[in-house]
Amino acid sequence: MQRMTALFSAALLTAGLMSVTAQAQETAASGTEQPQAAAQAQNFSDDQLQQFADASKEIAVISQDYTQRLQEAEGEEAQLEVRKEANEKMVQAVENSGLKVDTFNAIGQAIQQDPELMQRVQEMAKADAAAEGQGS
Predict the structure, then answer these.
(1) Alpha-carbon dihedral angle through residues 119, 120, 124, 126, given to the nearest 10 degrees
(2) In this structure, are residues 55 and 121 in contact, taking their beta carbons and an 8 Å threshold?
(3) 95 within domain boundaries
């Protein structure tokens, strides 16, 4: 359960990073701590950061979709089911990017603590989006 909350929190962070409105209050309420992730923060390769940016874009879309579904879900059990489904899709997006969930979460936490790292990831995401726009 803690892993699910950590991923969902990281997803909401990245959704915010990508300028998507997300409902962080409910998922942040249970809170998670991974102090050792911050210690590893500076050891991420450009490839890992690019994978994080790619996964973040996918997660932002998933998060936006499931935030709406969560708001529409009636009752605690229905909301839990929506969260579970969203989490599974987010895990898949992370794994499809080539990262492990723990690495994705560690990068997400490092970004919260390091504005320069956040800027690097944002620039990677923007450059990737620009390249996609020219590729058509």
Answers:
(1) 20
(2) no
(3) yes
Q: With pLDDT > 90 as the criterion, what percentage of the chain qualifies? A: 56
Question: What tens digit of pLDDT does each residue of 17-33 get?
Answer: 443 223 232 333 334 44
Helix (H, G, I), strand (E, B) or coil at 100: coil
Which range among 22-31, 88-97, 102-111 shows the weakest confidence by mean pLDDT? 22-31
110 has pLDDT over 70: yes
Give, in order, the Cα–Cα distances in Å from 15 to each of 9, 39, 43, 52, 60: 10, 24, 23, 12, 4
Q: pTM here?
A: 0.67
Contacts 24+ apart (CB under 8 A), 67-75: 67/21, 67/22, 67/23, 70/23, 70/26, 71/23
And the tokens for 54?
């790619």
Q: Which amino acid is at 82?
A: V
Our count of domains for the chain comes to 1
Range of the domain at 108: 2-18+42-134
